[in-house]
Design a protein that fits this description.
There is one protein chain. The protein is α/β, with parallel strands linked by helices. It has two domains: about 190 residues, FAD/NAD(P)-binding domain, CATH 3.50.50; about 120 residues, FAD/NAD(P)-binding domain (3-Layer(bba) Sandwich). Helix 1 packs parallel to helix 3 and helix 1 packs parallel to helix 6. It is elongated, with a radius of gyration of 22 Å. The two termini are about 30 Å apart. It binds flavin-adenine dinucleotide (FAD).
Length: about 325
Amino acid sequence: MSANGVVDITILGAGPAGLAAAYYAGHRDASVRIIESLEQLGGQVAAVYPEKHVYDVAGHPKVLGTKLVELCAEQGLQYGAEVRLGEEVQTLERVSQNGEELLAVGTDKGGPYLSRAMIITAGHGAFEPRKLGIDGIDEWEGKGLHYFVREKAVFQGQTCVIVGGGDSALDWTLGLQDTAQHPIALVHRRDNFRALESSVSEARALEGEGRVRIMTPCEVREVHGDGTMEAVTIENTKTGEAEQVPCQALITLLGFHSHLGAIADWGLELEGKRQIRIDPMTCETTQPRVYAAGDVAGYPGKITLITIGMGEAAIAANNAIAQIRGEKVQPKYSTD
Ligand SMILES: Cc1cc2nc3c(=O)[nH]c(=O)nc-3n(C[C@H](O)[C@H](O)[C@H](O)COP(=O)(O)OP(=O)(O)OC[C@H]3O[C@@H](n4cnc5c(N)ncnc54)[C@H](O)[C@@H]3O)c2cc1C
């Protein structure tokens, strides 16, 4: 399918609700395009608590966040949905093509992406990585600055500085031990880490072997290099001493922030400040063929839980398909 080809349903956001909507749409033979602002699937579960266990998702007595995302992705993408990661949806318009009225979404990277219906599963809004407060830091993206570790091989033999005090920072300080050059510098602005105690103890043990260098309370102040990154200046905020540390890869793992952003300006009625009003019977918003499910969808008494979002995704997908095809809403069982 061409990048801008018409699909039945655009899904905005690849969290648990978006992936569930993709499953239900695919199960009904609808073509799907998912657009997600992050470079990863899984919404809040992947971005905020990948290493925590979740106990209340139907059918899973206890499941690790990352595992849940993996299972949701396997289920949701099995019918071949097109997935566009790293694109933030910004505009929604209605256009006419061959006598058919279509929804056209534009992103910060391109578009228009055309579809017959849309399901907004945007959670609390588009996630963006928190960035270091250094002037011109964005210019280092693609030249040594990383907000995620997707492929360990990228860091093979490199001098790495990891910034952060949470689980991701500690996990990758340990996880890149067999890949990056030693010592991996771990920089945190406080003396105490928020990460799991056992990970911190492991990092301290590796520090004793010269494989990790823990730098606290410290902050990265400057990036140096000519085209590609070569070093960073790290300041100890207690003593004021600054040091230049070799650095080919600066990996900042400082969490994410989210914003509903442009979606709030599409003329959809809102429920409160952060949710889009839907009719809970159909999950349709106040605009025809635009549906919403999951945390972003609001109505009186709404509970924001994964299981609820998945249920709404099923309602939204089945209603969207019925509307596109001019049929009665009729879910089909998945058993074969
Ligand atoms: C610490 C924590 C613990 C939790 N524990 C539980 C629990 O135990 N059980 C439970 O049921 N729930 C739990 N929750 C809540 C649960 O994570 C959410 O209910 C669930 O993630 C909502 O799923 P969603 O798909 O609606 O939205 P999200 O998971 O928020 O996903 C939305 C996605 O849409 C993307 N997006 C948004 N706007 C745009 C845009 N304009 N363009 C492109 N992409 C966009 C975002 O980047 C994001 O990836 C917890 C939440 C937190 C923070």
